[in-house]
Write the structure tokens for this entry.
Amino acid sequence: MVIPIVEPNTCIRGCCTSSSIPLHLPPSSYSLLSPIARGAESVVYEGTLNGHKVAIKKPVLSLSQHINDFHKQLQLLCKLDHPGIATLIAAHAKPPNYMFFFKLYQSSNLGHKLHVEEWVPTVNDALMITMQLAKALQYLHNLGILHRDVKPANILLDINLCPRLTDFGLAEYKSDIKEVSLENWKSSGKPTGGFHKKNMVGTLIYMAPEILRKELHTEKSDVYSFGISINELLTGVVPYTDLRAEAQAHTVLEMNYTEHQLTAAVVSDGLRPVLASEDLGIPSRLISMIQKCWDANPKSRPSFDDIVNELDFIMEHRKVKNVEDMHIRPCNLHIDHHVDMTYQESISWSTQGELLVGNASSATDPCFRTWESYDEPLAYRPILSWGSYATCGRREAMEDTHFILPHICNEKDVYAFGIFDGHRGAAAAEFSSRAVPAILQNLGFTDSPANTLVEAFLRTDTAFRKELDSYRKSNRCIQKDMHPGCTAIAAIVSGNRLFVANSGDCRAVLCRAGNPTALSKDHVASCLQERERVIRHGGQVHWQVDTWRVGLPALQVTRSIGDDDLKPAVTAEPEITEHALCAEDEFLVMASDGLWDVMSSLDVINIIKDTVKEAGMCSKRLATEAVERGSKDNITVIVVFLRPVSTAERIY
Ligand SMILES: Nc1ncnc2c1ncn2[C@@H]1O[C@H](COP(=O)(O)OP(=O)(O)OP(=O)(O)O)[C@@H](O)[C@H]1O
Ligand SMILES: [Mn+2]
Ligand SMILES: [Mn+2]
């Protein structure tokens, strides 16, 4: 992208100059589209500059000091040019608009990648990221610049997952540092002032003990933050969160309280996060390097020159020895799944579900884009972050399954989520959790999202019953009278459109302007309409014990995948609801009936309101609360935030 430079290319004060980066832009050359992130000091937007997609960082300028800071940051950014550092393309440094234009890095930041997308890197991925980042910091230190805010949220990833260090909001020339820090502690009160404390929840855990003791920042303080960040990359664990696994810090208040104790433990007791383990193929020298980086004594920490040399050695050694690359953690570690083995012996229903529909990930057919929201380029675009939690609860066996499928057919703005609640065994739920996403991928955008969802449910049901039949005929490892089934709910978010398909009694709720909107209706025999439909299709309904039930198996639900002894009365055909999302939509909650048995939609919304705004933590809190309230069933929860959540309430 070539942007003409208008001379004199300086900011309004004349303190920032550059020969290659334009510092004032005609207003017609750029536009702000949707916000990507709201930080403490800025809002980052996706936007365009001369027709190209860019990231636009617009600082919050509420004090004159903030304008000084902008100029300082711009002077610094103009000097930087390194493949490990986010590229500044242009800036606008004239009132009333102060903006930085960066290259847009599409693969989000490392914190999001690890904890929201649950990305599991291979050893080589991890080594490459570590090396690139070390080289970027080596480059800065050679220029006499300290970054002072190294953490995964400030490490962007490009499409090749190469890291790009960003956020120079706290960066300083080492030579200026004495003066600045004294001034900082006094005037702005960083990091002890009330406001900053609130916003430092995320940063504190990366701060070296000497910084927590309010001593001066040196190169070695960046080394410490680097060590903590790389260990987080290797373990996939937000530093110290494992400490609170039992205590379950759910609210910001609780978090702040623990942060206080944490600071004391890091400074006085030498507490550090749990170190990555060698078991999963991580080179032992990399692990010892991390330990040296977070040594309590700054003088004992290596410099980035030392670190780059050591990494060179580790990588060369792997190459010579031809060490096999592998993932550094098993994928999907967080789900406590117990598979019901009573009748399925050696059949893996999940694998069957995947195999049956062909290898979805290799779907190479170009997808035809017929999904309507793409015709409206200016339509509202929600920004999603999601998490899930699944627990057996008080049951012996886990019969719930779920899937999360971001970026269907590599489309950035298209996501699918689904939950399956098995009955009479887990087979149907296990099969469906693989088959439904695979079919969605395979169908791509050839039909409307609503039709695609219906098709996915029906095809999964047919495929599962056929498979079951062939097992029965071949007399292999299945009892003749077993008719497993599952209820199913799935959602597709495509641009600003939300589609929910439901068969059975899982439920989806949207929080719109603080109030619950039901996105699904339960299909149970106690519902007159459903009872009549079952009878019309040849099924039998009777009152038994306390409620209406279907057929001999006395099923309470009237729609499901599987249950082949009750077909076609108990249909797999879902009901679909469709909504246009808008700025008032805060989040979407999907859950199996184990949650809804003990909680109303309003309860769910209120609980999320006072929980740390991290989707995984919200899901866990809801499920845990449901167990506490006496739910006797398996519980699976998926929470999807539909707009950016405040950094102050995020945990990384
Ligand atoms: N060039 C970019 N491309 C894509 N996403 C970006 C880009 N720059 C920033 N972001 C996103 O915006 C987030 C915030 O950016 P940045 O850290 O620069 O802002 P900040 O206001 O200083 O935030 P903080 O609250 O961490 O101080 C990043 O974590 C990243 O997810
Ligand atoms: Mn940041
Ligand atoms: Mn910042």
